[in-house]
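#data-curation
PF: Archiving a pair of folding outputs for the training set. Convention for this channel: one message per protein, sequence first, structure tokens after, nothing in between. First:
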Amino acid sequence: MTTTGTATMTTDRPGGGRRYRMPARVRIMTWVVLLMAAVLALVNIVVWQTLETEVSERVDRALDQEMAEFEEFAAAGVDPRTGESFTDLDSLFRVHLSRQHPDRHEIIFGHVDRAPGATVPTGRVRQGQEPLFDASADADTLEAVLTSPHGRGSVQTPEGGLRWAKLRVAPPDGADVPGGWFVVGYFVDADRADIHRFLRVLLLVSAVGLVLAGSAAWWVSGRILAPVRLVRQAAAQITEEDLTRRIDVTGNDDVAALAEQFNAMLDRLEEAFSTQRRFVDDASHELRTPITIVRGHLELMGDDPEERREVVRLVTDELDRMARIVEDLLLLAKAQRPDFLHCAKVSLAELTSDIDAKVRALGHRDWRLDEVGEGVVHLDPQRVTQAAVQLASNAVRHTGPGDTVVLGSALTERDGVRTAELWVRDSGPGVAPGDRERIFERFARGETARGDRPGAGLGLAIVRAIAEAHNGEVRLRSAPGAGAEFTLILPADEGST
């Protein structure tokens, strides 16, 4: 079972089970959404990594700046208020920190070691501004920072992560005082909170964009695949009895071109089925008539020997006509096969002379040979002879004794392309304008031939089939009462047929 539109489609398996088949519209939307999701995920990850790197670099620059300022100040070793050198680290730290204005997320402090023989530490010196968390006053945090073997690190505090850098400070030269540590810290969670808020907004926008992209993909794919859906629906409704369904084509893209080609295919199928029906109807009619005649004569045949001979003659004549019809039908069927022609290089003049000698035996007419083309051509001489003889036979059937029938050939060249022309012209009644195209169809007839039964209507169809097999054509030039001229126009060079 196959459903229309964008519904889920399933097909019956030989074993009785059903196999799920995802509609193309859903598949396109799914791939677009997955692709967009992958791109947006990559964008979010890259943005997050970039922002994290910027925060880390900004914190490192802040720590480096504070360290550089302290090192420069400590290297001078002079109190700018008094102009005298520092004699202890406590004074050095206090004077330096009094001149600093740290950021809200920073903490700067100094820690002086325990003096020799002292029972308590000399103490700590912290910035004037109140930090988010006073790490210098928290014993655990202070111990984690001061006892770390590294000059930089991070530690968790109640206010989040603290990135720190420390510098070992020796006592002033000649001073009998303890050394200490200069520590700079930065609370990074505040900056990361901004990043997280930005990422949440970015994720929300990405989700909305993903929904919009999926909706757009659903709508666009529906518009693009509409002709395909119409093709599928039309194919499901088409039967051998009804090939009239067509698809309304809009747009100029590849899918619209597919719909146009599908309509063209339906046109060809409809024409093929119509031709097949006409062919079957005409063939059955043509064969039914001699069968009826044969059956009727056989059923009424008496015991008189003379009557029997006459019936046998009539029956044989009808059977011969049936055989000719069957042979002509087989020839037309073979014309569609690749081995229908056996081309070779032949002299056009010799071919024309041979055809002229053969057609003169068709009837008592005023046979004339018009101009004869000179040159070597590449074609199937037997098929061309067959077509020319058929044209001559057609001319004989539409003329009377003493009427003129002319045969001729020519070799022309235009734009470097050589063409062989072979024509048969008669002085018969000509072809009515309404019959000029129809007489080349199977079982089609024009005016009734003179003095004989009409043919099966396959002769000119055979001529056209032979010409088209050579990639050529048959042209008719005629006027009522002025005769008719049929011309075979065939490519003369190898590779053209």
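PF: Second:
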Amino acid sequence: MQFWVAAHIIPGVFVKDITTAIVVAIVLGILNTFLKPVLQILALPITILTLGLFYFVVNVLIIYLASYLVSGFAVDDFIAALFFGLVVSVVSAVLGMFLD
């Protein structure tokens, strides 16, 4: 649901249909579970130097990788991927508040 909403809000992000949004959610879940912790550990020195801002770059890299892996999901540029990650986080938090 979050991916579908974010794709309609942000220009530069394209999700073909709801089935593609579900596949993107699954792929991002897998990437965030297995690859993101490794990238965070490898990027820890840069993350410390940038006071945590490099964490957003890691999120953007994960989103780019998901767009490469899933056909029907496309992200045009870095800014679109950054805002996509932020909108997905905010929508997830809001839905989490109502569902708890």
